[in-house]
Amino acid sequence: MHHFFVNGAKIPSIGFGTYGMTRPEMLRMIPAALKRGLRHVDTAQIYRNETEVGECIPRSTRKAGLSVTAYCAMAIGRVLLDPMLAEIAEDHGRTIPQVVLRWLIQQGNIVALSRTTNPGRVVENLAVFDFELGEDDMVAIQTLARPNSRIVNPHGLAPVWDP
Question: What are the sequence ranges of the domains in the chain?
């Protein structure tokens, strides 16, 4: 396999696409692709397969020593306005950002990026390892995903069919 190097990291030049695959195909093929050395698995909210990819990646990544990076966890502040997240945060005596970060990392092998310009929030964001969300909370938060709700959309990078 051909690789390229970025900041000293060796990355395969070929990734694995999942668009149009069925659940059984993904559950079979994603682990097989990772086993063969592929390290980029394509998914997007528009594919409506994030759940299946999410189920495969943690199982496979632990074996391969990989992790998944979740960026834009705060949805450019939009999560702060969600009443369900507010209720879950109140139930746990936490902030909404803490609940969102906990939801991400509790899935396993997820590296959650959190951006802030407030030093106090860095401390707050790190205070997510001393509580757990219940299964009902985890499922409820997953239901917030909506088709066609792309938030991060750098000019010139989003495909024409995914505005």
Answer: 1-66, 67-146
